[in-house]
Amino acid sequence: MSVVQSCFRRIPYLVRDIDVFRISSFRLLSSTSAKFSSHGQEKKLFTPGPLSVSLTVRQAALRDLGSRDVEFISTVKFLRSKLVQIAGVSEDDFTAVPVQGSGTFAVEAVFHTALPKPKGKALILENGAYGKRMGKICETLGIPFRLEGFAENSMVDVNKVEQILREDPSFTMVAVVHCETSSGVINPVEEVGQMVKKHLPNCVYFVDAMSSFGAVPIDLERAKVDFLVSSVNKCLQGIPGFSYAIVKTEQLLQCKGNSGSLCLDLYDQYDGLEKTGQFRFTPPTHCMLAFCQAIKEFEEEGDIVGRANRYKENRRILQEGMKKLGFEEFLGPEHKGYIITSYKFPNDPNFDFKTFYSKLNEKGLVIYPGKVLNADCFRIGTIGQLFPEDFHTLLSCIKEVCKEMNIKLPVS
Ligand SMILES: Cc1ncc(COP(=O)(O)O)c(C=O)c1O
Question: How far is the CA of 20 from the centre of ligand 1 (A)?
Answer without folding.
Answer: 30
